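Most newcomers find our protein records easier to grasp once they have seen one. Sequence and backbone structure share a record, each on its own labelled line. To make this concrete, we reproduce a full record directly below:
***
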Amino acid sequence: MSEVNTSRRQFLGWGTAAMAGLAIAPGVTLIDLAHGKPDDQPVSSKVRWGMLIDANQCHSGCSDCVTACNKENGLSGGTGPDDSQWIRKMDLKDTHSGRVMSLPMMCQHCGNPPCTDVCPTGASFKRADGIVLVDRHICIGCRYCMMACPYKARSFVAHPVTDQKPGRPRGIGTVEACTMCVERVDAGLKPACVDACAAAGHEAIIFGDLNDPNSDISKRIAEYTTKQVRADLGLDTGVRYQGV
């Protein structure tokens, strides 16, 4: 690592620590955003959180996962250019067989995320457990990460945000995307989209630890053929798809 990069990272680390006590929403501080857990319960690289989406079980007319995400994170649910969409449903058609598949698309929580590589301030970062997040305190809204993301998974907040939900800070002039419901995960729960899909009886989204061979998601990946979207990019996505 060059001296310039080392100095910049040291500076950013100092700045982050210095601002750790600043509140960005009622009851939410930078420590909450960056770590998600108390200091005595740090995240660990022993865990790699991920999702497996079964296109065979995902119904074209169902948008329960999208609705749950919007409700959980206080999003408008709009689909215009100025609306944030952390998860969206996509219909894909096989040009050879004519088969139409429906699947949700969100931040893929890459093991090698291009969004973090292009971020000039370090606002885009990956936790030790694989969850990719944005630090709103140091995001300058340059939108380089949006251009670098091959999944079009990030949104820019162009208008003032009101009635924010505690624990899910948002702010004008910043970029945001699916957080894999990091607050719920740190509390021992599953992401809202996973619970909503299960409640609808589809069971199309499996959440779990990709590093644990005994987890449901790892067993499914070992038993069935699964794919990464744009696997050719070598990003090692945390979201996998079955039946596509």
About this structure: The longest helix spans residues 3-18.
